[in-house]
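Handout, section 4.2: multi-component inputs.
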Amino acid sequence: MADQKKFVEEITSRDVDFAKWYTDIVKKAELIEYSSVKGCMVIRPAGYAIWENIQKNLDARFKATGHQNVYMPMFIPEGLLQKEKDHVEGFAPEVAWVTHGGDQKLAERLCVRPTSETLFCEHYANIIHSYRDLPKLYNQWCSVVRWEKTTRPFLRSLEFLWQEGHTAHATEEDAREETIKMLNVYADFCEEALAIPVIKGQKTEKEKFAGAVETYTIESLMHDGKALQSGTTHYFGDGFARAFGIRYSDKDNNLQYVHQTSWGVSTRLIGAIIMVHGDDSGLVLPPVIAPVQVVVIPVAMHKEGVLEKARIVASRLDGLRTVLDDSDNSPGWKFSEHEMKGVPLRIEIGPKDIEKNQAVLVRRDTREKIFVSLENIETEASRLLDKIQSDMLSRAKEMLLSHIYDVADFEELCRQSSEKAGFFRAMWCGDGRCEEKIKEEAGLSSRCIPFEQKQISDKCICCGAPAKKMVYWGKAY
Amino acid sequence: MADQKKFVEEITSRDVDFAKWYTDIVKKAELIEYSSVKGCMVIRPAGYAIWENIQKNLDARFKATGHQNVYMPMFIPEGLLQKEKDHVEGFAPEVAWVTHGGDQKLAERLCVRPTSETLFCEHYANIIHSYRDLPKLYNQWCSVVRWEKTTRPFLRSLEFLWQEGHTAHATEEDAREETIKMLNVYADFCEEALAIPVIKGQKTEKEKFAGAVETYTIESLMHDGKALQSGTTHYFGDGFARAFGIRYSDKDNNLQYVHQTSWGVSTRLIGAIIMVHGDDSGLVLPPVIAPVQVVVIPVAMHKEGVLEKARIVASRLDGLRTVLDDSDNSPGWKFSEHEMKGVPLRIEIGPKDIEKNQAVLVRRDTREKIFVSLENIETEASRLLDKIQSDMLSRAKEMLLSHIYDVADFEELCRQSSEKAGFFRAMWCGDGRCEEKIKEEAGLSSRCIPFEQKQISDKCICCGAPAKKMVYWGKAY
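Output:
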């Protein structure tokens, strides 16, 4: 019991040491455990159940937009990885190489996929022949490996779980439409399921994906004011198609190259949930993806009728993801534990409540207590979960909006970025050297060229040349 | 069009060349495509959708029996793999070794998991402390790699998808109960979802899993009379617990080793579905796991009102997994294509049917045509799918029962096994040398020591010593 008490108390305050707070949460909420494999994590039941809900929700959105799931091999022969020049340059330095199968040295090294463009391209070259075969709208759920030097749970690890969409289209127009459509699917998912608002835009040349013509991104803002790239979609043009020979006969029987896209989100989104919504008592999960939405806790469980009543209440809520905590820990300990784990709604029920035919509903996000008649418990619990979900989004939006700063002067940008964190909006001439200088002197990387532009001034904040675009700059994970 | 026609015709007859027929099906039903990665396959949408339905159905059974999903790293450091002696001897010869991360040679080689006992054990040693932490009932869905020399789609490949359950219990009794419980979950799943009857039993010492005290298996019979090991569960005793130091304090505060199990099924089950139910026209999918349960095909689609009516029928069946094929291929071609893909029920609707307010329902399994009034189409389609599912199981059971042969004499066993395929039931003394001899001279391996025993004689069929058990022998994939 003493051990257990300690368990829920040992968490660093969010505003004292954000990085430590984050690590505390992933451990104490039992999302992750370290393993002896450097940079690789064990995703524990509480963490994996969040990922399962993310998968279920996103997968339904993918299928509703006509996509199909497939599974490609996890290995890529070295020769295949090298087929597209920019792509191999981007990824070869950070892949894991398999050199032996059993006792045998392999004739050709295999890398463990860091991403699967090359495998999809090889497959598409085999199965696409006619315009009738297009579009191909494929997705796969899998794990990928990137040999990162510094790792952090969910945010950056040697191996991570993700989905990667890979599509092939007859025309540039169709492929471009797909690239934007999937960015919107991601953005809607983040807002509607994760209660995380995002900035949608395009990556600069410097920040785009290895092999892409254009990369689009959704950027979200963490509680510490840093940005998190939360999902990306890529328009490839016909570059991969030319490298891999992916052609189809059009209606006039002419051979044409396909136009391609790819797009992905990963378990990094769990990191975003933690850092956007979490507080000093632990995780705060948005009801839509919370593995447990409601926990029912009997108070004075030893008193006659209490546990029985709690069971009835829990079973009446089985349309929601409800658990009854009838363990022999104290109610106070249970309150803390389920707060740590981010359960959106707690229902307390004790002898006095039973007398009054009521229960106490406690919101995880605001800690508000609401006394509800047992008659209306299903309706009230559902209503509150909806309310929690929308309030979480509203607060995250407020947080985002209050951390966007428009700056027109370079000195001012350097000064502000040293004083506060958030998104700095400033004009840019489009030159990579200015981007580089802003990185070096203001410590800010370009997050995206947002779809929603605003004319802050008409000159590049760095060189003073005519500005082409307004850009979001920030410090990022 | 000519190409497409050819597509559905090109399939070897099942009784002419079963192996070729199998390969034809996996290609023509578009389940699999080969890749340039030796021994690895691309699982295409039609194949992956079957796996998704298997996952969904099995996962619900796992959760209903109290299991939780987790995700372990895909890499196992060489030192960790070596911790349990029998286990490493069994698996080390067939693992893929990662020796380099990017340009750096690794200090310790990592193998790509062939199975994850060692990772789960390391994790359990970290998180299990008290009797309160038990049982741990974990499962993971992932891919594993075994460096096989000869590979066949779904049946044996270098990489395959599977689930692996790993559990830790306070007592031997609990662990033993889990081992049998999960074998029953597998057997029920095969019967109820895949319409495949199985023989349940224990593996011999020779055939058991590397590191297990006992291995249990479900064995099914393919159309060619060969057996397929379709799922296994393992009782580990405290062997792994001792090797990895997984101990807990019991209620009296004494340190005890846990008792463990593991269990798994894989995409191999898709191979079983093909080989149990398929015919010369292609795949025959059991309705419970068929990605498409009903295909609606308009006949004389150009005639007024036909396509419209077909759309109405299809939309009325949206409680089932229904698709409307309104492509511009001929009805005949569509019939063949959806037969090839194994769609359990076809609904044809043409001008004459519309006149009579009816549709033609065609069963994939029996090809029976049933004329159904449009009034009752939902009820009839559902009823027929249920009937198809149960008839498929009945036929598979008949097939199994008619291929079980009781033999009491060794010469007779050799003669019969050279003439016909199936399960041969014969008595065994328990000596591995007899098992070896039966393998060498009759070409039969021990499939299992079935739970349902029958006294065929009182002597070992091989050496004549007193028999201990009746054993199923067979040729196996």
